[in-house]
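Try this one yourself first.
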């Protein structure tokens, strides 16, 4: 894990910033109980001034985060257990000193955990919705381009000041230089499974001494944009130890996931239950329907949503067929549950099915592979699935 180190040179005590990070891809970092192992923290560095980074958040399970909106905290997926209602997390905002009585505190009411975390796609990010908005709170925008994924970054957090050390009372800050993917992957066997498209590395390769450490997990890595405004480019994810030479910190590459983060944020736009409808998700690949044959399916994958599907889930269908009364159409949820959209009718001889069906799928989780299933139950006439879309 990464940590704060004190170096003595010519009789002067030098403080170097480092953050301690527990690898997010290890069993401990992915534990469904985030309070078992808080993960990375910022070690070393210098104390931030009050108001310098007003969007910084300290989370009660021992992680960091940033205010994405006045009600949503962006953090790491490995800091939270799963997507769903959650009132167990307390967010502390607006102070450098965690014991400052002017701190703003809010409890959570919902968590959205990236559905791709733990897969080959990567995605160590999550959103925590607070019980109510914080009026006037500063927010930290996320990058939507790779243009800022290099240079020198700033990191901040209340994590351990030494590898294996305790959490800090005061917010520390430090600067870390970009490390390219190949150099990072080759630094040691620990980094051999680095996901180039999903992770970005930073740290002082030659000397170490500056890094994130345990307790800093979920906190932002940020830099100035073209307008000299702060913009978030990374999320503290994992690393080998704290501030060691040739052991950079690994951060979630926000530019890769900004679309999914925005979609999830939009779906969590307030309230206490699941967010509004998410989508549409579409499939325009033609699927031939056998005449009086077995059922065929076409799949769309819903991702970046939160919570359960709506009671007004929309299924828009475009099927070309010369006798639509032949067709039985069902929506198949990710767990295999079936929802009938259309029955067959020997008296309905019109062409094609071009319609939007409304389904109460509120018992289903939004994210996952949904299927449109179509079967032709009478002989002679034929057709194909032209396209369909789903809004959950």
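Now uncover the answer:
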């Amino acid at each position: 894990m990464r940590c704060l180190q004190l170096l003595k040179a010519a009789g002067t005590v030098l403080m170097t910033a480092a953050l301690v990070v527990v690898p997010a891809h290890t069993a401990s970092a992915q534990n469904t109980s985030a309070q078992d192992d808080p993960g990375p923290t910022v070690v070393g560095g210098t104390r931030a001034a009050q108001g310098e980074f007003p969007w910084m958040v300290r989370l009660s399970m021992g992680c960091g985060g940033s205010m994405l909106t006045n009600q949503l905290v962006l953090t790491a997926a490995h800091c939270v257990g799963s997507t769903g209602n959650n009132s167990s997390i307390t967010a502390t905002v607006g102070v450098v000193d965690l014991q400052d009585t002017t701190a703003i505190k809010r409890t959570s009411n919902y968590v959205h955990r990236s559905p791709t975390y733990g897969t080959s796609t990567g995605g160590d990010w999550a959103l925590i919705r607070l019980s109510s908005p914080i009026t006037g709170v500063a927010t930290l925008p996320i990058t939507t381009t790779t243009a800022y994924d290099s240079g020198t970054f700033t990191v901040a957090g209340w994590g351990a000041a030494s590898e294996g050390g305790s959490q800090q009372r005061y917010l520390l800050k430090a600067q870390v230089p970009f490390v390219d993917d190949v150099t990072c992957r080759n630094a040691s066997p620990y980094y051999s499974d680095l996901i180039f498209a999903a992770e970005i590395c930073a740290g002082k390769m030659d000397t170490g001494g500056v890094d994130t450490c345990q307790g800093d997990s979920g906190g932002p890595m940020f830099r100035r944009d073209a307008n000299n405004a702060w913009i978030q480019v990374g999320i503290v994810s994992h690393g080998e130890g704290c501030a060691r030479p040739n052991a950079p910190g690994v951060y979630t590459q926000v530019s890769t996931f900004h679309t999914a983060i925005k979609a999830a944020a939009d779906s969590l736009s307030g309230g206490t239950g699941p967010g509004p409808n998410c989508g549409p998700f579409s499939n325009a690949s033609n699927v031939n329907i056998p005449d009086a044959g077995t059922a065929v399916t076409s799949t769309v994958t819903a991702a970046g949503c939160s919570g359960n599907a709506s009671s007004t889930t929309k299924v828009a269908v475009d099927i070309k067929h010369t006798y639509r009364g032949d067709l039985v159409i069902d929506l198949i949820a990710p767990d295999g549950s079936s929802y009938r959209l259309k029955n067959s009718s020997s008296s309905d001889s019109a062409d094609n099915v071009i319609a939007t069906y409304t389904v109460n799928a509120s018992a289903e989780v939004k994210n996952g592979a949904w299927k449109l299933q179509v079967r032709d139950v009478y002989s002679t006439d034929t057709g194909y699935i032209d396209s369909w879309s789903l809004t959950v």
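Discussion: The radius of gyration is 25 Å. The chain has two domains: 5-267, 281-391.
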